[in-house]
């Protein structure tokens, strides 16, 4: 028996705030285990493999979490930088869940929204740990206008009610305005209080804009998106777009302003992210090192990462995050009888 979850099925399952809350809680536990905590030996996360065409790059991302007894393989295609394919619907992605006993297919899950949400959950955990309280962020700058940016905006705006201004930096005005419309709709339907957030769409992040407290970059740019002088001291950067040595969302100068760069996985980020390969920052800390086993902050390690002019979190995205979110969504689907069941898949 195989359960098929379409994009619509997935969106229904992840719409509840309780799903995101549980995802964030378990994301903390996952990163702690990944960075040498209890249960590390139960995790398997090989480097992704790639097939490159003129129009897109196929990434194959297998992962196994023995604690969840779940094994998945995600297939995701990333459009080439010069491709005309729109990414407003998110990256084309599907995840195969393998049966824990037979190794056959247990489920096939549309992963467009899951890829964006699991990445945003990791970024939120990093921001919760690295943001310098008691100061509160009031300005958010988002570079890009796809699903990754949308889910980052949703989670950050929800967690930080202090944010008053949100810049959408994108060269295509129609996509930027469409994102604003979606975010405003989400705000109207998921919050019980009236909150006036000023959204402003711009084609570049220039000096006339109010310096952002939190900046999120989600593009496959080969040149820095922001001039270093435009990033205020004390800002927090979330970098999730680059995944090859040639890609750079920020400059080496910007990277070196942090006392330590925090990454999802040092093994993967230092091998894949162009900004880090060129800058060679030291030290590089893994997100899980900022946490204790119970999910509370490890203030000693956080101090090491937050004494510089900036705090930086770089994520290349891990298959283990896909394992986690797919496990949660399949559990929810079974509990709520959502999805299409193929009873004779091997017949």
UniProtKB/TrEMBL annotation:
PANTHER family reported for this sequence: KETIMINE REDUCTASE MU-CRYSTALLIN
Family stated for the protein in its record: Belongs to the ornithine cyclodeaminase/mu-crystallin family.
InterPro entries per UniProt: NAD(P)-bd_dom_sf, ODC_Mu_crystall, ODC_N
CC per GO annotation: cytoplasm
Name assigned to this protein: Ornithine cyclodeaminase
Organism, scientific name: Serendipita indica (strain DSM 11827)
Pfam family, one: OCD_Mu_crystall
SUPFAM superfamilies registered for this protein in UniProt: NAD(P)-binding Rossmann-fold domains
